[in-house]
C-alpha cells in the first residue's frame, strides 16, 4: 500500500500502528528508488489525524466499496489541494464514514484496497503518475522489451 | 488478485498451484456479487498454458516493472482480443520474459502486482470497468454518501 502511494505520486503515508519493519521497508525503497520528499509516519491516533487534517483546511477521502463511485466524483476531488486518503483493512469503523468529506468507491465491487488506491491516484493525476521520474534515485530501470536492465545512477 | 480481475472486467483467472481455498473464495464472490461467466481454474503447467494460448492465436502480456511502460504500449494492446495477462509474485522465471508477446510495466517503480493489474485493465477498458453491472448478482451496493447500503436482488 505504501509503495503504491509512493510510486503513484502521494507525498507521504501515515500508518496506523507500530509496524516499524514496514516503515523501514518503505524508507529503504525511498533510499534506493528515490522520492526523499515522501514521508512515512506511524500514527497512534488516526481519528485525531483526520480531525486535524480537516481543521487545517484539508479534505479527507475515505475509500470504501459502499461509497459514491469514483467516476461521479473524480472531477470534484481532483480540484482539492490537501487530500488525505483513508484506506482501511476489512473492517473500518463507522466514524470514518461520517467524518470523511467523501466516501468514494472504486467500483462498488469487492476487490482490493491497494487496487482502489492505485486507481484513485491515477484519476487524480490523470495518468501522469506512471511517468514520474524520481531524480534522487540511486537505481533506475531502463525499460526493456525482454529481460531486466537496472542502472546505478550514483556510479557515473 | 482474482477479485481485481473479476471486478475490473477480466473473463476469468488461471491460478498456478493448488490453492483450493482461494478458488472457493472467488467462486463465493461470483455467487453473491455476480459474473457467472468468470472462470476460475487451477493450472499445474502455466508455461504450457502460455504456449497453448499463443498457438491458439492469443497474445500474452507479462506484467513486470522491468518492461516497457504502459503509456507507450496501451494503444497497441487495447486492440488485441484474446489477451492472457501473466502476473507473478516476487520472482518470475526468465522464461516468461522471453515467451510473452509483451513485457509491460505499470511505471518502472516497485509497488504491487495487484495495483499493476488494476491499472492495466483500467487502460484496456478505458475506465468503463468501474461501471460494470453484474446482472446475475444476488447482492448489490446502493452507493451512499455516508454509510452502507446493500440490497438483495433476489428478494424482490
TrEMBL record, chains A, B:
* Catalytic function, reaction form: cytidine(56) in tRNA + S-adenosyl-L-methionine = 2'-O-methylcytidine(56) in tRNA + S-adenosyl-L-homocysteine + H(+)
Cross-referenced Pfam families, in alphabetical order?
A: Trm56
Q: Which GO biological process entries does UniProt record here?
A: tRNA nucleoside ribose methylation
The record's function comment reads:
Specifically catalyzes the AdoMet-dependent 2'-O-ribose methylation of cytidine at position 56 in tRNAs.
Superkingdom:
Archaea
Q: What top-tier enzyme class does this entry carry?
A: transferase
- Source organism phylogeny: Archaea, Thermoproteota, Thermoprotei, Sulfolobales, Sulfolobaceae
Name of this chain's protein? tRNA (cytidine(56)-2'-O)-methyltransferase
> Assembly and partners?
Homodimer.
**Is-annotated flag, keyword Methyltransferase?**
yes
Gene Ontology CC, one term: cytoplasm
Which molecular function GO terms apply here? tRNA (cytidine(56)-2'-O)-methyltransferase activity
Q: Which InterPro entries match?
A: Alpha/beta_knot_MTases, tRNA_m1G_MTases_N, tRNA_mtfrase_aTrm56
**Presence of the UniProt keyword Transferase in the record:** yes
Q: Where in the cell is it found?
A: Cytoplasm
Of which family is this protein a member? Belongs to the aTrm56 family.
EC numbers, comma separated: 2.1.1.206
Q: What coarse category fits the chief subcellular location reported for this protein?
A: cytoplasm
Q: Keywords for this entry?
A: Cytoplasm, Methyltransferase, S-adenosyl-L-methionine, Transferase, tRNA processing
Amino acid at each position: 500500500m505504501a509503495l503504491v502511494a509512493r510510486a503513484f505520486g502521494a507525498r507521504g503515508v501515515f500508518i496506523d500502528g507500530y509496524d516499524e519493519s514496514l516503515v523501514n521497508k518503505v524508507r529503504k525503497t525511498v533510499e534506493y528508488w528515490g522520492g526523499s520528499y515522501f514521508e512515512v509516519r506511524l500514527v497512534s491516533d488516526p481519528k485525531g489525524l483526520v480531525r486535524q487534517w480537516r481543521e487545517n483546511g484539508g479534505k479527507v477521502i475515505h475509500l470504501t466499496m459502499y461509497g459514491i463511485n469514483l467516476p461521479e466524483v473524480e472531477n470534484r476531488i481532483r480540484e482539492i489541494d490537501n487530500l488525505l486518503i483513508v484506506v482501511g483493512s476489512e473492517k473500518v469503523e463507522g466514524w470514518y464514514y461520517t467524518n470523511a468529506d467523501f466516501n468514494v468507491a472504486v467500483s462498488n465491487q469487492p476487490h482490493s484496497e491497494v487496487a482502489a488506491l492505485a486507481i484513485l491516484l491515477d484519476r487524480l493525476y490523470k495518468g501522469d503518475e506512471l511517468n514520474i521520474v524520481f531524480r534522487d534515485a540511486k537505481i533506475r530501470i531502463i525499460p526493456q522489451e525482454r529481460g531486466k536492465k537496472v542502472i546505478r545512477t550514483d556510479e557515473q
